[in-house]
Design goal:
heterodimer, A: mainly alpha, 10 helices, 2 strands, B: Ferritin, transmembrane (chain B), transmembrane helix (chain B), membrane (chain B), Tat (Twin-arginine translocation) pathway signal sequence containing protein (chain B), Ferritin-like_SF (chain B)
Chain lengths: 269, 235
């Protein structure tokens, strides 16, 4: 059973709002009902979900630092698996992508495939088995038809790329303990942003996100853009000079691990 | 026309005042922003002449980002105040947005630094000896170089940030710079792979990341006001 589905079904803020050891997690979970695959929860997955509320400097977090780091990479890997498969299917679907647009998607696809391999290699080098590729459903249970409708293919591509940017950004704090991993994460993160800008512009949007408007995006993708209308950064009002659209666009926002998982889970069986 | 300095093959620029004055007379090649540099040992550097040092720790990184945002803001201000001949409506909109964003970034860093330290980088002076602001090719090539440089700079500086809040801030900005870079590159080579080209993305799918020393060596040609960043081996 897919790990993201397990987490989704277990969704309980209090469960993951503290840093538990693996044994404590298992004991706590057994008190609310056990599922066969629960024992497969990687050590520290709870700490990843709680990352946004956890005190980074606590003694507990030092113990879990490596796990927060590898869990961040596992999340990134899921997102890269998703993009990689999405573009492979799209490029292999006859008559879907217009010839004039193929070059762009071949380049994006090349990168996503490289990201999958890079993250797997990185995880292995950290002594962790990379997660297996989930089974994807890019129709999101029948809500979309991206492989028979190019407009929808572009729509989801934009959603995936903008999600990727926010998801990586949200994990920066969890990987900063390893300078090599941090830099690599930043280097992937900016590539996703280049992708996002290009796909957005192919959809007659600006390459950057103004307010919380994805730009002709279906309501199901609202979570991808929620919070992007922020115009205060570290106490500085970014809207003063040129208004809310420019202010909000000048900074991209994070997605927490929880929110990134929720978006990915829409497309995972 | 001044006699050009012979490139000694080194990759860093001594940003002492003497060098800046000499660099002011040299054409800096914009295509690829070829390095023009001299070995640090070539010049006597007198630390006593009040040249601003970017500082230590996170303050140094913030000042570094502030310097680069000052440069981008200054460049785009010039661009939007006199668009190149034949600029399309779409191009004007993009360049105006970039101008907005970089000015906001610059003002953000000035405010953030002012709240955190007295060691705030002063307003720098810039020069664009080989940029023709009336020419689309020249302006877009420079914009591309500046945006790619911004991405590489933030990606390479992240590991030097110790405060997680600052790291997230840097992250929030670098992805916008990458969006910019992608758009400019596509304006130059529409519908190709240039938006995320093999010249900047390696076989692992990783974007550029450069050390501050290397960034200052490349961007230094635009910067008239000298500064140092001793912690990062600059000056």
């Amino acid at each position: 059973m897919n790990i993201l589905k397990i987490l989704d079904k277990l969704s309980d803020d209090t469960l993951f709002s503290k840093t538990f050891s693996r044994n404590e997690n298992l004991n706590h979970i057994s008190s609310i009902g056990k599922k066969a695959a629960i024992a497969a929860i990687p050590l520290g997955m709870g700490s990843m979900l709680a990352a946004e509320t956890k005190n980074e400097n606590s003694a507990d977090s030092i113990y879990f630092k490596k796990d927060a780091l590898t869990d961040a990479l596992q999340l990134a890997l899921v997102l890269e698996y998703l993009e990689d498969e999405y573009y492979k299917i799209g490029l292999n679907t006859l008559s879907l992508i217009p010839t004039a647009d193929r070059t762009v998607f071949m380049q994006i696809s090349k990168h996503e495939n490289a990201h999958v391999n890079f993250l797997k290699t990185t995880l292995t080098s950290l002594g962790v088995t990379p997660g297996a590729k989930p089974t994807f459903d890019f129709t999101a249970g029948g809500s979309f038809t991206p492989f028979t409708n190019y407009s929808q293919f572009l729509t989801l591509a934009q959603a995936f790329e903008d999600t990727g940017v926010r998801a990586y950004k949200g994990q920066a704090g969890n990987v900063m303990s390893n300078k090599t991993v941090l830099q690599a994460a930043l280097q992937i993160h900016s590539v996703e942003a280049r992708h996002a800008s290009m796909v957005r512009r192919m959809r007659a949007n600006k390459g950057w996100i103004e307010l919380a408007n994805g730009g002709n995006m279906p309501p199901a993708t609202n979570p991808v853009y929620a919070g992007e209308d922020l115009t205060v950064q570290a106490g500085f009002n970014t809207a003063t000079a040129f208004g809310n659209a420019a202010g909000s666009a000048s900074f991209d926002e994070i997605l927490t691990g929880t929110d990134a998982q929720a978006i990915a889970s829409l497309f995972i069986v | 026309m001044k006699k050009p300095i012979t490139v000694s093959g080194a990759t860093s620029i001594d940003t002492g005042r003497r060098n800046f004055l000499k660099l002011g007379g040299i054409g800096v090649m914009i295509a690829g922003l070829a390095l023009v540099g001299c070995d640090d040992d070539d010049f006597d550097y007198n630390p006593g002449n009040n040249i601003f040092d970017l500082g230590a720790g996170d303050v140094g990184v913030l000042n570094y980002a502030y310097a680069l945002e000052q440069l981008e803001a200054d460049f785009y201000t010039k661009v939007v105040n006199n668009f190149y001949t034949g600029a399309s409506t779409a191009e004007k909109e993009i360049l105006t947005d970039l101008y907005h964003h970089e000015v906001i970034h610059r003002d953000f860093f000035k405010a953030a630094l002012s709240g955190a330290t007295t060691q705030v980088l002063p307003t720098l002076e810039f020069q664009y000896p080989n940029v023709n602001f009336n020419d689309r090719t020249s302006v877009l090539a420079t914009a591309k170089a500046l945006e790619d440089t911004g991405v590489a700079a933030y990606n390479g500086a992240g590991k030097y940030i110790t405060n997680p809040t600052y790291l997230v801030i840097a992250g929030k900005i670098v992805s916008v710079e990458a969006r910019h870079a992608s758009a400019i590159r596509d304006l130059i080579n529409p519908g190709t792979a240039a938006f995320s080209g093999d010249d900047v993305i390696d076989t692992n799918g990783l974007d550029l990341a450069k050390e501050p020393k290397d960034i200052v060596a490349v961007a230094g040609g635009f910067i008239k006001t000298p500064f140092t960043w001793k912690e990062r081996g600059i000056g």
